[in-house]
Design a protein that fits this description.
Strand content: 15-25%
Number of helices: 8
Largest sheet: 7 strands, mixed
Structural class: alpha/beta
Radius of gyration: 17 Å
CATH class: Alpha Beta
Distance between the termini: 28 Å
CATH topology: Spore Coat Polysaccharide Biosynthesis Protein SpsA, Chain A
Helix content: 40-55%
Strand order of the largest sheet: 3-2-1-4-7-5-8
Number of strands: 9
Length: 252
């Protein structure tokens, strides 16, 4: 007899996250148990040089719903999220950062929104009073500038595209990850561009969030790459790399 599909798949991209995952993976499973959710957790190891993969294998003995995927070398956060989302089997799927900058309990808000929407994105900008620990001023300014560039170059209208906490109704959203082409930090605007292109219903949800001083995003280097990625979105669209796909009358 085939086991029922999970209620929720949680995808966690990971590059050298041994220390963080030892703390946060038990929190994710405690959340699933507390909410009575049938869940699976997929950690995508992006070519880590520490013991990330070994830790996940060890924890899998304690948490059978834990799965490890390994990328062919270091490919980027976007590549990792895409691999995890395409491997997910849950009715709903969420990706989150390994440090749980947005506490996993905030998933309640995103999952509730998926009753009426196809995509729910966590946002730090809608209600900044929920930010528990703010970024340094230069990171905040860079984020505002990138969000302005995102609106200008891609037409994506949301206040915060880069919060690494997003949930999806998996079946209608699968096309987003099938067509995704950007592999590093600039993938979030591409996913949202695709969601709007395919007519999915998207809502931005304010969430509690705390800045981690050990952030892996380099403001200048990665910021410039992400601006290039925004231009690539327009190029891919012009070249026909994002064909619209009929979702079917029963999608909603």
């Amino acid at each position: 007899m085939t086991a029922p599909a999970p209620d929720l798949s949680v995808v966690i991209p990971a590059f050298n996250e041994e220390r963080r995952l030892a703390r946060t993976l038990p929190q994710v499973f405690a959340y699933l148990v507390a909410r009575g959710l049938r869940g699976e957790v997929i950690v995508v190891d992006d070519g880590s040089t520490d013991a990330t993969a070994q830790l996940v294998r060890q924890l899998a003995a304690r948490f059978p719903e834990l799965r490890l995927l390994s990328n062919p070398g270091n490919r980027g956060k976007g590549y990792s999220v895409r691999a995890g989302m395409l491997a997910a089997t849950g009715r709903l799927a969420l990706f989150t950062d390994a440090d749980l900058s947005a506490p996993i309990e905030e998933a309640d808000k995103l999952l509730a929104a998926l009753v009426d929407y196809d995509v729910a994105i966590g946002s730090r900008a809608v209600d900044r009073s929920l930010i528990l620990r703010h970024q340094p001023w230069w990171r905040k300014r860079a984020g505002i500038a990138f969000n302005w560039a995102t609106k200008l170059l891609s037409g994506v209208p949301f206040h915060d595209t880069q919060c690494g906490f997003k949930a999806f109704r998996r079946e209608p959203a699968r096309i987003l990850f099938v067509q995704q082409r950007i592999e590093r930090f600039g993938f979030d605007p591409e996913i949202l561009f695709l969601a709007l292109r395919h007519g999915l219903r998207v809502i931005e949800v304010p969430v509690r969030w705390s800045h981690d001083p050990d952030s892996r995003v380099h403001v200048i280097r990665d910021g410039l790459r992400m601006v290039v990625d925004l231009l690539c979105i327009r190029i891919h669209a012009f070249l026909g790399h994002y064909p619209r796909v009929e979702q079917g009358p029963g999608r909603h």
